[in-house]
Design goal:
This protein is mostly helical. Helices cover 77% and strands 0% of the residues. The chain is globular, with a radius of gyration of 15 Å.
Length: 137
């Protein structure tokens, strides 16, 4: 069950990145303007924070390096903030905040860490569906 949720969450995040890439390509055709927050920036920041948390928790509880969450966050950053350094910095800060918040409280894998990882995956999948459903093409 946990593996299916992980795969669902990762696939959902992939759809999010693909949907944002389509939206970003439409935006790139417009002339460059001052950075303007997207209507989903708050949700995107939360998703970045969740990805950071998951990156830490999965590595803590699985024992081996799992680059998937970090790679998903990097792809999201590259797609969403290519020409907007301030937005990029906010999303990177959110990812790092999520990572550090669990690094500060969990040094070994515990049932609480496993539960948090499951809850964050579910929240991340929900956010990804909501963002793409409302703002994706």
């Amino acid at each position: 069950m946990t593996q299916r949720l992980f795969i669902f969450g990762f696939v959902t995040l992939s759809f999010l990145v693909s949907g944002i890439a389509v939206a970003q390509s439409v935006v790139e055709e417009a002339p460059a303007a001052a950075e303007k927050p997207a209507p989903y920036d708050e949700q995107l920041a939360r998703l970045s924070e969740i990805l950071g948390s998951l990156h830490y928790l999965r590595n803590l509880c699985n024992g081996d390096e799992e680059p998937g969450w970090r790679e998903a966050a990097q792809k999201l950053l590259d797609t969403e903030t290519a020409s907007e350094p301030a937005r990029r910095a906010r999303l990177v800060a959110a990812f790092n905040r999520g990572y550090r918040s669990f690094a500060a409280t969990h040094s070994v894998c515990t049932p609480a860490a496993i539960s948090a990882e499951e809850q964050y995956r579910a929240e991340g999948a929900t956010l990804a569906v909501e963002i793409t459903g409302r703002y994706g093409n």
